[in-house]
Every structure is written in C-alpha cells, then in structure tokens.
What we know:
By secondary structure, this protein is α+β, with helices and mostly antiparallel strands. 51% of the residues lie in helices and 8% in strands.
Amino acid sequence: MAKIKSIRLFALLLCVLIIPIFAGCTLVTTNVDKYLNEVAMSYDNGRVTVTREELISTYNSIGNSRFDDSSTPTKEGIESTLDLALNREILVDFLTANDMAEQREALKIQKVELTTFQQNEVWQKVYDYVNDSVESYEKDLRQEDDAMLPSGTTDEEAESLYEDALYDKTYILVEDNDGNFVLQKVAKDVEVSNKSIALFNVDGGLSFSEKAEIAYETFRKNYWHWTDSILMNENATNKTSYSDRAWSKFINQLLRNEVDRNLSKTSEDAFLRQIEKVYDVYYQNAVLTVFQERYEDSVNVTSNMVYQKYKELYDAQVEKYTTDSSVFHSAVPTSAQNVYYMQDTTGYFKVNHILIKFSDEQNSRIEAEKKKLTNLEIDKATYEQNVAIIKSETKAQNGATLSTVYNEITSALNSAGTESAKMSAFATLMHKYSEDTATLGGEACYYIPLDSSKDSMEKAFADNSRELYNLGKGKVGDISAQWIETSYGYHVIMYTGTPTNVEATGNINTLITSLDAYRLNPLYNKTMLDKIIESVTLSSYSDYENNILTTIKKDKSLTKNEKVYSDLYA
Length: 570
C-alpha cells in the first residue's frame, strides 16, 4: 500500500497517544482502579464500553483540540469526545468481530483483516512511540549535563525526508477526447511483506507475565534505539549510561502511573500493559484506515464535484471576509493554506525559512541574566554583553556553526539554475537543519504583509522579509543576506512568491486547471486541487461512516453514566 504522506483527518481516527497518560494533560483524575475502570458509556448491553480512563485518553489525544476552544474542558466537549470514543469502538468491533459477519454481509461490507505488512506497520509505530518516549528522557538527562549528542540529519537523509514530504496524489488531471480536463484516479502501489515484527506471538497461549517478559526482552534487544547502554553493550567501558538511566525513568514513570492500582508491579508487566494500550490505538487506527481507503477506492471524484466544493468554500469566505476583512488579515499570515478567497493578493508575499533555535539550556541562561538585570545585580550593558555571548554559541543540531550552515545554503542555491531547483534545494536543507516543524510539511508557509501594521509575526522576521522582497524586487529564490535573529533563534529566509486568487467563476475546465497550478506551499507539490479533492472525499466518507454507524446502532441499547465523568468539566 502506498504511504499516505499528507495529513488526513479520519472521522474516528486518534492521532496521538500521550505518555504518561496523566502528565501534562488537560484532564487529570485520581489514579486508582475504582475511578479509571468505571464505565462512562455502554453500548449493546456492554458489548462495547468506554471507561473513564479511555475517555480521558481520547480527550487528551484529540478531543480537546477538536471540541473545546478554550483550555478548560466543557460538558459539550467531554460528551462529544465520549461519543467519538464509543463510535470508534463500535465501528472497529463491527469491522473485525467474527460474530458480526451477518450484519456486515447485509451492508455489503467486507471484514477488515490486516495483512502482515499492515500489522508490521502497526508494530513499527508502537516501537517508534516507545523509542521517542525513552529518547525524550535521554535528551533531558544529556541536556542537564551539557552532553548532547549530535543529532543532525545527513544530506542523504535530508533528501529522503524532503521526498517523503511530497504529496502522493490520488488523482491527476488529464484531457479527454473532447478537450475537457477530467480527474483520473492514480493506481495504488501494493507493498507486500511476509515477515512479522510483532514482539511476541499473541496467540501462543502464554500467560500475561510470560508475554510481558518476552515483549520486554525482545524490544530491548532488537528494537530499542539506545546510544550508550552498558547493559546492552558487552564491550562498554563507561560506568554510567544516559540510555540506561532514560530507560529506568521511562519504566518508573509507567509504574508511578499505576501506583494506586491493583496491578502487578514488575517492570515487564508495566511495559506490556503500556505496549498493549499503544498497540490498541494504532491497531484501531489501521482498521479504520483500511475501511476508509476501501470506500475511497469505490468512489470516483469528478471535476464537477471539485468545482461545486470549491465554489461552496470560496463563496462562504467571500461573504465572511467582505463582512469583516480583519478576519482575512488575521487568517492569512500563518494559515493561508485554508484561505480559498484570497481577498488581497497584492498586499502579501510568501516566504519559507530555515530556523536554528536557541537551545533550552541557552534560554535558561538568558532568563538567568534577565533576572540578574531585574534584581540590579548587573547593568544593561553587561546584560547585553552576556546575552550576546550566550547567543553566539548557537549551533545546528549536528553541531555545525551558523556560518557553516549559511555557506552550505548559498552554495546549494548558487549551484541550482532555475527557481524550481533553488526551492527544491532549499527544501532539502530545511529538512536537514530547520527546527520549525510547521513548515516542513506539504501545506504551510508564511505570508508576510507589505503593510507592517498588519504584522502578526515577530517584527525582526517580518521586517527582514519585507527588506528581502524589496531589495530583490520579488525575485523568487532570493534569501536573506545573513541570519535573522528573533526570540526563537536564527533564521535564513527565502522569498517564494506572491499569493494567488482562483475565482470560483467561469467554466469547470478553467477552474480545475487553475487549482492544479496553485501550489499551497511553493516548496512542495501539493496543490489546491489536491486539497479540494481531499475535502470532497472526506465529506463523502464522513456521510458514509455516519450512515453505517446509524444502521448498526439501530435498536441497540445505549447507556451513559454521567456521574463517572461529570467532575472532568465541573
């Protein structure tokens, strides 16, 4: 199956699983079995349930961002999350359970059984998740000792990351015999793997503790991304290990999360319980993804469907922005990929950038200097001198100096002949060096207003972007003559073009070809046509999913126990 590289919103898909479940979350609760295992909602006489713990996990993963605008959970937000969690469980049960075969047949829906390759993908996500969790502890430990390992990206890896960020198109635009442009579905690549990478044989009839021990040792020996582990490296000469200490912190956190619960207290058992939670989320995601992809394969998006969807979105924004143009000026700088009616195409221009951030350690030292200044321990001149020294130590993640990185950027751009080649080279270097994750994907770039009174970004960044635009007279591919300092760190800015307004008027051919030529982010290949096709497909699938859920839930019992979760929004 082709890898989906765009960010897609599945109606019931959970994108994040927070670990530990109660650390730094919007919702917290007493960490005891009595409360966590209570059923908040039950379907079909207990066939499917959502516990308080599952509700909290779902809310922290996606519910707060989807249903609550503020940082304080609301009753409506909690209950919408509860409905989402239950519907997700119901649909997965319907798609996978053997005893639902008759109901699936009646709705002409095939059972979802993951292939070996798809199961491997699930396990790989689980492994990545655990490694990321442990590595975050190691990073903190190393930072405390100023012993960070170089973690930059190589040229080859950067090129690969850039290629991975390019959009896998689901449709292409072709001209038919009558001279009309029509959408043609792209055939998917099928990837097959017969090698399972599961931690253990879940059907082996083993006890929980036996499975836990196998899972623990298998992960540690084969999949843990340790850097200096003494326990895993027989030839190690160091007496201390950041990796081993990080692993201990990770396991200890899992045990602390369960301290008041009636559960076994071994490291192996705690590890397996966490693995099973994470696996369950990714497994359900995979099932729902297969279900959605099957539906999408059965649906053909037409040029007329795209035309109608774009016109709907465009006309809605015309009304909104005409009523209050400040809404437009507020949305454009950082969210232009979601602006369909570009009300002002002459007042903005596009930039991309490479950001090398101040480290946490640098920021801490700067804050300490500010405190000294506030307490009159040093004068302003001394403060500025000390801060300048701290900032002069800024380096890229691989340890390269700012001057080295800038020279590499200019060399790559000088070697690129065309505007397109320059932007491709810059994008590759973004993936090698930049720490602004928002602009490393397919859709987002920054729009800078020519009128400084409309700025929403830091003054230094916006002013230097305008200077770049004015000096180059709008020459795409030009970069700032030096590093630009902001409170985040240092930036190299590239001018990447001016906005486009594709009016929702005229014939379908004109609109479709214009949308296909409109790149959301000039450095990548995803177009507005791709985005509208996604919108049409998602809308169609959401209606289909809702209809399926309505049908399978008909005449089934549904019990909600508000007492179990009412304190979460009280």
